[in-house]
Design goal:
The complex is a heterodimer of chains A (425) and B (108).
Chain A (H helix, E strand, L loop, with lengths): L31 H5 L3 H11 L2 E4 L7 E4 L2 H8 L5 E2 L31 H9 L5 H20 L6 E3 H18 L7 H11 L10 H22 L8 H7 L8 H14 L2 H16 L1 H9 L4 H12 L4 E6 L3 E3 L2 E3 L4 E5 H4 L35 H18 E6 L4 E2 L8 E3 L1 E6 L1
Helix pairs in contact in A: 5-6, 5-15, 6-11, 7-8, 8-9, 8-10, 11-13, 11-15, 13-15
Chain B lengths: L1 E6 L5 E6 L5 H7 L19 E4 L4 H4 L7 H6 L9 E3 L12 E4 L6
Parallel strand pairs in B: 1-5
Antiparallel strand pairs in B: 1-2, 3-4, 3-5
Classes of the chains: A alpha+beta (425), B alpha+beta (108).
């Protein structure tokens, strides 16, 4: 990709008129401002009802199809032979990869098709497979407890900075066996990877490029120390010692690293924050949780559905086909809006509501389905379960005391600030 | 009815009965057999209903077909063997009455 594979993009001015009056052909759900203002849901609701497979002929990202219903998204996601993730065709996000000379042409397995995807994914999967997570659980729990114990009760704090970022960064540092005192670098690189110039994170694409090269050089140093190291279940040792990944070209090495960093950081971070928002907006559910803490197990997937930390994944059609009665041409850009599918009332009962004891809470699209399904899904759930178990031990209420601030991005459904006050039991 | 016995990782046995035509995933979920998640709803899209077919039954159930979606997904699962299948792809009929399936320690 260009590093922009995971970026959101520029925005157009938002028309100031009721959604119902906008001609369907003019609806463009890719505008990042719609996500920052958290107003995109009403657009998806209309598309699901009136034009579930919708063509937008003109956008800042070029023409694209929006797939908005659960079952259509499932059909595209599981048809990897027809719908490609290949970076050179545009990759996995609405913003094309490899489209800008100022960017790095990174490569990562999420943006590859078979067979290369399979070999590279298999090389790193053991790091987040269940047996390794059993080893990680006590470490994560101890660190989560330490974070929560350090927080002041009764004072306004920013939950994002104090908890969500801290916990996910610590977990990521553990997975990479990253030098502990320098772990803030991981957060920075994660933010930079998905940032657009002017979003407050980087000023220019050149700055991004420079910082990501620094990231690569830093990891190259760790790699060189660990190559030929026989023990070690951290991701770098695994990549350095697997035949599928040890000879990776430089940009593929950097791309896969950034994939693991962003995958393990932004997404869980925003679900940790999103859970606090959801419980505050649904005090009856918060009360139910206090009465029945064993519901944390089913609340965790509900948080992940409700938040939908990645709004979409994109594919490119390799041949002419049909989805929901619409003709998709070879080469077309097809965007699966997970955020919309997770609110599809024909598949999920009362989808707008946050319900911690849903019957089938794991039936959601947030991890994707098929061969590109989120590799770290169990780790994400583990972190969320631990943090809520540890919160429950310490605090009666994490009270939201101001409006959350959201990220300007059409890909990462990010919460950048969340003022809260903690109340002891 | 078709009888299926699920054997948990710790050796506990869960004998269940289900109508012919249903899948082994449904047999587990409808009877609350622990250890089968089945996140995707039985569409062969997630590999969270991984089971090890008892060797005595594998020929009747059939082994994983190369180049199938099921194989594409199971290649990333933990602890697969030559008897690994996805329960959602095992359709139960009278031929499989008495089937024994082993549930791995965790789904992934």
């Amino acid at each position: 990709m260009a590093t922009r594979s995971m970026q959101s993009g520029p925005d157009r001015e938002e028309p100031d008129r009721p959604i119902a009056e906008i001609p369907l052909a003019e609806i463009d759900v890719s505008r990042p401002s719609l996500f920052q203002s958290d107003k995109v849901g009403a657009f998806f609701e209309r598309l699901r009802r009136e034009d579930p497979v919708h063509y937008c002929s003109e956008s800042a990202f070029g023409p694209y199809w929006s797939i908005t219903r659960y079952n259509d998204i499932m059909a595209v996601d599981t048809n990897h032979k027809l719908f490609s993730s290949e970076a050179k065709l545009g990759g996995i996000a609405i913003q094309d990869m490899h489209n800008d000379a100022t960017n790095l042409e990174l490569e990562m397995f999420i943006a590859m098709d078979q067979p290369k995807h399979d070999a590279q994914r298999k090389a790193v999967t053991p790091a987040v497979a269940p047996s390794n997570l059993l080893l990680l659980e006590p470490v994560i729990r101890e660190r989560a407890g330490a974070i929560l114990d350090s927080l002041p009760v009764g004072e306004e704090i920013d939950w994002v900075k104090s908890v969500s970022v801290e916990l996910t960064t610590m977990t990521l540092a553990t997975l990479f066996d990253f030098p502990w005192d320098e772990r803030a670098k991981l957060t920075r690189w994660s933010d930079v990877t998905t940032a657009i110039p002017g979003s407050g994170i980087v000023e220019s694409n050149e700055q991004r490029r420079q910082e990501l090269i620094e990231c690569a050089m830093y990891f190259k140093g760790l790699w060189d120390q660990r190559i030929d190291r026989s023990e070690g279940s951290d991701l770098i040792t695994m990549m350095a010692n697997s035949p599928a990944t040890r000879e990776m070209p430089f940009l593929e090495f950097l791309g896969n690293l950034l994939l693991l960093i962003v995958g393990g950081n932004d997404t869980t971070r925003n679900s940790i924050s999103g859970g606090v928002i959801a419980l505050n907006q649904n005090p009856d559910q918060y009360e139910k949780l206090r009465q029945h803490p064993s519901l944390i197990g089913s609340m965790v997937p509900e948080i992940i559905r409700w938040q939908t930390p990645l709004t979409h994944m994109r594919r490119t059609a390799l041949a002419d086909s049909e989805i929901g009665g619409k003709r998709i041409a070879k080469g077309d850009k097809v965007v699966m809006w997970y955020l919309s599918g997770n609110r599809d009332e024909t598949v999920i009962e009362r989808p707008e509501e946050f319900i911690i004891d849903r019957k089938n809470p794991r039936q959601h699209l947030s991890f994707g389905y098929g061969i590109h399904r989120c590799m770290g899904n169990r780790l994400a759930e583990l972190q969320l379960r631990i943090i809520w178990e540890e919160i429950h031990k310490r605090f009666r209420l994490v009270e939201m005391v101001g409006e959350p601030e959201r990220l300007l991005s059409n890909l990462v459904r990010g919460i950048t600030r969340l003022p809260v006050k903690l109340h002891a039991h | 009815m078709v009888k299926v016995t699920f054997v948990a990782h710790d050796g506990r046995r869960f004998p269940v009965e289900i109508e012919p035509g249903m899948t082994a995933r449904e047999a587990a979920l409808f009877n609350e057999v622990p250890g089968i998640d089945g996140d995707c709803g039985g569409q062969c899209a997630c590999a969270t209903c991984h089971v090890h077919v008892d060797p005595a039954w594998i020929d009747r159930v059939g082994r994983l077909a190369d180049d199938s979606m099921e194989a594409d997904l199971l290649q990333f699962a933990e602890g697969t063997t030559t008897e690994s299948r996805l329960a959602c792809q095992i359709k139960l009929d009278d031929r499989l009455d008495g089937l024994v399936l082993r549930v791995p320690e965790q789904q992934y």
